[in-house]
Structure formats: C-alpha cells, structure tokens
Amino acid sequence: MHGLRRPSGRSPHPGRRGAGTYTLPSSRAGVKAQQEARVRTILVTGAAGVLGKAVTALLEREPGVRLRVTDVAPLATRHEFVQADLADWDKTKALCDGVDEVMHIAAIHPWKQYTPQQYLDCNIKGTCNVLQAAAEAGVKRVIYTSSIAAMGYRCERPEELPFDESRPCRPVEDIYCVSKHVGEQFCEMFRHRHGMPYIALRPGTFVPRDEADPAWGLSLLTQWLHVSDIAMAHVLALRSDVKNEAIIITAKVPFTSADAPALFTDARPVILRYFPQAKLLEERGIALPKKVDRWYSIAKAERLLGYTPQWSFGEWLEKALAK
Questions:
Q1: Cβ atoms of residues 75 and 83 within 8 Å
Q2: Domain count, the chain
Q3: CATH number of the domain that 301 lies in?
Q4: Is residue 206 within 8 Å of residue 224, measured between CB atoms?
Q5: For FRET with 163, which of 21, 33, 282, 296 sits at 20 to 30 Å CA-CA?
Q6: How many Cα atoms sit within 13 Å of 152 on the Cβ side?
Q7: Which residues, in sequence order, are CB contacts of 290 under 8 Å at separation 6+?
Q8: Number of H helices and number of E strands within the chain?
Q9: CA–CA separation, 31 and 28 (whole Å)
C-alpha cells in the first residue's frame, strides 16, 4: 500500500461565505474567477464503455462540472481524456490529482469471456488503485459502480423476496460476483481508515439489447434495466449528499412479498393480474415467464436519490403492443 494522507479540508462549496450567500464580484474577472471556483472536476473511469458513455453524455449537461475521462481503450471526446490501465498505480495516481469526485465505472463483466487474472487486475486491483489514489488526492467522494452481483443471486425461499440492501451478501456464483463485493469492501475500508465517503450503486443487468426483443422486455420483470436509467442514477448520486450507502438500481416492478410464493410456482396469473394486457403477448406467440424467482426493491434509491426509472415492463409492454 502506498502512503496516504487525510483528505484535505477543502470546502465542497468554494467561495461560499455563508449559507446560500456568495460575495459579489467587483469585475468581469471576478465573475469568471468565482464561476471557476465553483466548478467541480469529476473523473469518470471506464468512459469508453456503454455505461461510461451514457454517464458522460448526461454529465455534459450538468452545471458546474468539468470532466476528466479515462479508459484502457482509446476514446474520441471533447473532454480531457487520459488513456490508462487502472492496474498501473502511477497512471491511476496521476488521474486523481486535482479531482473533486470520482465515478468509478470501469470493470469487466461476464457477458464476455475473461480469465480470473483479468478480473483480479481490472475489478479488484484497478478498484483498489482508484480508491487509494482518490484518498491520497483528497477526493471528496467516490461513486462506485458495483452490481447486484455483489449480493449474490441465489434465492432459496420465496420469503427472501424482494431482495433489498438488508440482504446479507453471499457472492458465491462466480469471480465477477466476488470482485464486486470486494470492491464494496474496499470502499468501506477507505472510508473507515481515511474518511473518504462513497456511494456503491448496485445496478442490475444492463447489457445493450434490442428494445423490441420480447426477451428483453420480459427481463424487466426481474433484474434488468435500461442503460439510460442506471446512467441517470449516477447523476442523481452525484447531485445528492448521500454518503456511505449501497443502493440497488433496477427497473421497478409491482410485485410484493405476498406475491412471491405464487411467482415461484406459477408466475403467469400474477403477471396478468398486474398487467392484463400481457395476454396480448401470448396471442402473438410470446410466452410469459413460468417462474419469477428474483426481483429487487428500489425503495432506497427512490428515497435517497429520487430515482424514478423511465423503463419498466409496463412501459415496454405499452410500446410493444402499439406496434
């Protein structure tokens, strides 16, 4: 581990003299200086990926934000870009210099074939390097893109549903699950040892797919979500004052814990009770799921972030039936 210093005592609101009060500039130069003083520099890792690009596009419209973006792959962008492998400590340390907050999105995922060593280098070593560099640089907060995988997927009894943040983490399925859980533990370690706040967002699956594909639409009843919704959750996290929380981000489903036993054994009647028009899918030869054995509560995201997903099975169904 490299030497760490405590985060600096820089105010999160440079130039502020009192609650909601700013000094009046005496010249145009003063106006410009005051505006620049209020600009935050946000580092976005994994900026060339699907989620990184979506988050960057939203952050471009945020007032008072300057972006520094990085990826191991080349990227054409109008923002400051540094091509870097986060497993390289020296490059990662330099990335965090002068940064106010970090959005650590970079990761590899199991929808492609990777070796265990690649998971260790990217998801574990890379994450540790980012957090350590952020702590040394006095970064005010890290928003870490974790995953519902950090909790583990196994559901043995319907009484466990819906999964929420109180569920004990049991990431036994694969190395990706373990890597995301370890990333959250790193966040907590750096908070405990160095006072660096974090938010760990736990998105569901957001692999890009054809939105007209019935399989994608039906997956919104479980753990999937649209990439635009998880991107907006990152922006909401940045806007918030939330610290040191893990927060699930998925599509919203109407199911309750009382529905769980029936969903485990015969999901179709429950789905039709909430979505009567889904019967029209069957008339088109699209079968409804026989079993729904995993879904998630987004109540914490709604409460802390004001998260309201724009895509759900209901929205998808309406669009699908209109065609």
A1: yes
A2: 1
A3: 3.40.50.720
A4: yes
A5: 282
A6: 12
A7: 266, 267, 268
A8: 13, 9
A9: 5
Whether residue 298 contacts residue 309, with contact meaning beta carbons closer than 8 Å, is answered with yes
51, part of any domain: yes
User: Which residue carries 């990662």 as its tokens?
Assistant: 92
Q: Residue 154's Cα: distance from chain center in Å?
A: 21
**Residue 259, CB half-sphere, CA atoms under 13 Å: how many?**
20
| CA–CA separation, 139 and 130 (whole Å) | 11
CB-count exposure of residue 26 (10 Å: 0-12, 13-18, 19+): exposed
Structure tokens at 124: 């574990």
pLDDT of residue 247: 99
Q: What is the mean pLDDT of each run of 10 residues along the chain (323 residues)?
A: 41 36 38 61 98 98 98 97 98 98 97 94 99 99 99 93 96 96 99 99 89 92 96 99 99 97 97 98 96 96 98 95 89
Task: State the Cα–Cα distance between residues 227 and 233, nearest whole angstrom.
Answer: 10
- Burial of residue 76 (CB within 10 Å: 0-12, 13-18, 19+) is exposed
For residue 198, the SS3 value is strand
Instruction: Give the type of residue at 72.
Output: V
The parent domain of residue 55 ranges over 28-252+295-312
